[in-house]
## 1
Amino acid sequence: MANKQQKIQDLENQIESDRILSGDGTNCTRLATKQLRLARLYRQTGDMAKASELMADAKKTLDDPLCPNSREKIRLQNAMAYMGMGTPGAQQQSINSMMMNRGQRMPAIYRFAGILILFVGYGILYISEFLGILTSTTEFGIGIFVVFGLSIAVSTILRGRYMRSINSGPVMVNTGGMDPATAVEKLESKLREDQSSIDPKRILDAAQTELALASLYYQSKDMDKAAQALDGAQKFLNDPICEQGFERERLLRTVEQMKGMISRNQQ
């Protein structure tokens, strides 16, 4: 707690200094980022009123007419809009931003299966025609339609199976042969490191660590601790400066699915 209070004091001093130096608006995004980080720290200490005040200050900083437009400004506004702090219409910008942000890349087999079937199928058709197996243009045309339809069907099935596989079930934790208690200890240590950082990327890392802890607790039948870890993950994912994107949405869905599993086990 003393360490957190020191961070709060340091950020407050930096914000006060930036306010004096950014009268022309050129440092507005840096000031707003620090205000959001300070809001997060206050929220962690339980001072929700101060956290809300700093969120409002960050919004005013970005809405200042002297604050120039930039990608960083848009990113911060999108994050705040997603939490209900933005201006009308900003929610749609946030959705677009989420779609454009980096996400988990689909494996090549799922992306190119349809094209592969087309090439192989058409190759077989041309060879069959050359060898005289297909003796009419009608048979060749039917073959083309069959191969085309098959490529679309297989591609759709594989993509659907992939999306279901990544959106279902609890997080699987590879403990590397460690016993569960040691794995939990290491994950909690990593979580403390992530929590001590104010880098938006580390917020997503912290949420993933909480989910991994929830999975280990779930496997060991400790539903209360699993539920607490899921609440922690959801708190990180709902943080205004958490990176938006496919990975965040996937983790949010996993949180809800695991909460449902825990609820059913507690009945």
Note: DSSP finds eleven helices and no strands in the chain.
## 2
Amino acid sequence: MTEADMVDALRSALSAALVLALPLLVVGLLVGLISGFIQSLSNVQDAAAAFAPRLIAVALVAIALAGWMSSKMVDFAVMMMGCVLDLSLFNVIGGC
């Protein structure tokens, strides 16, 4: 396995992690901003009032996107297993 192969595998892993985490992070950010704005208007400074809506929203989005996220993870795992299989066949045949 060359350095380019390792860099490509790492790039694929980081890209998959970013694609999977981004929807949840964006929802958490938006709900946090909205709840913070509402708290500043109402002068409520309770940590639970900021945390609970964010937790509920992220959980609902995670449930809604569970099928898509699992298919992305399975696709990534199949791709990586194929790369490992190609690498092992290449070594058995006498490539490296």
Note: Residues 3-42 form the longest helix (40 residues).
